[in-house]
Amino acid sequence: MLQWKIGQVTISSVTELNDAVIPGTSVIPAATPDAVLAVDWLQPRFADEAGNIRLRIQALVVESRGRRIVVDTCLGNDKPRTKPFFDHLQTPFLTDLGAAGFAPETIDAVVCTHLHVDHVGWNTVLRDGQWVPTFPNARYYMSRVDVEYWSSTPSPDGDLFGDSVRPVLDAGLADLVDPPFAVTDEVELVPTPGHSPGHVSVRIRSDGNDAVITGDVMHHPVQCARPSWASEFDEDAAHAEATRRAFLAEHADREVLLIGTHFADPVGGYITTAGDAYRFD
């Protein structure tokens, strides 16, 4: 389990899908093998010798001021999805979360950076034929803009809102927020829209140390070198690119640990300028 210490804050990674090797074009249409291989610093950690990319699906557990905060809840089990890869999964994620010391009932907060399929799945579990919140003692923090958008916009991946968001709302466990929003005085949700209308990233500041959890501002480090490369899943590609460029410029050449929600091992690193773009070190 990867873990980072940011001042008094601890961040732990619990993976659902660990560093899968996939064609880049399945996520980032411009990421053909030749285009990926042209960014030589990606190998071997973030791309293989054939120009495929490495991605992971993970939850990040942030411990701050005595609170346990799960950032993004991956894909989930038993969920009916339109893509075979996501459909009716059976993974040991919840067991792994407990084995890491984070039993569901001990979680105080859940943050959804946005409401796409691989960020809301474990919000709920199937119990006696009903979807119920996985974390019964947690407040679920969701962007008000994203909730309003997805409550009336069908997802191409299935009824995510019905099985992974609405049950949390109905249980009275959701707090709809308008970032910037402080979960604790060390953990803040900051607006990074474009990938979805209400997308947020998570900024951590403690004892003079800084980190940021990206969400899907970037799916892969190649987007540091190629900020114009859109994700297949951006709701507004132009807005997402503008946000990504601003995000990279803000954090480049600073002592801010960037934790990529979908980045392969080592997940965390630093943005440095490289010519007219950036590099992830």
C-alpha termini separation: 20 Å
> Mean of residue pLDDT?
97
* Main β-sheet description: 7 strands, mixed
Any idea of the CATH class?
A: Alpha Beta
Number of helices: 7
The percent range for helix content is 10-25%
Radius of gyration: 18 Å
Q: Strand arrangement, largest sheet? A: 1-2-3-4-5-8-9
- How many domain modules? 1
What is the ordering of alpha helices and beta strands? EEHEEHEHEEEHHEEEEEHHEEEE
Extract low-pLDDT stretches.
Answer: none
Number of strand elements: 17
Structural class label:
alpha+beta
**The CATH homology group name:** Ribonuclease Z/Hydroxyacylglutathione hydrolase-like
Work out the strand percent.
25-35%
CATH architecture title? 4-Layer Sandwich
Quick structural gist:
The chain contains seven helices and 17 strands. By secondary structure, the chain is of the alpha+beta class. A seven-stranded mixed beta sheet has the order 1-2-3-4-5-8-9. The chain has a six-stranded mixed beta sheet with strand order 10-11-12-13-14-15, with no helix packed on it. Strands 6-7 form a two-stranded antiparallel ribbon.
How does this structure look, described?
With 281 residues, the chain is α+β, with helices and mostly antiparallel strands. The chain has helices at residues 33-37, 93-99, 117-120, 144-150, 160-170, 222-225, 237-251, and strands at 3-6, 9-22, 53-64, 67-71, 109-111, 124-127, 130-133, 139-143, 174-177, 181-182, 187-191, 200-206, 209-213, 256-259, 268-269, 271-274, 277-280. It is globular and about 55 Å long.
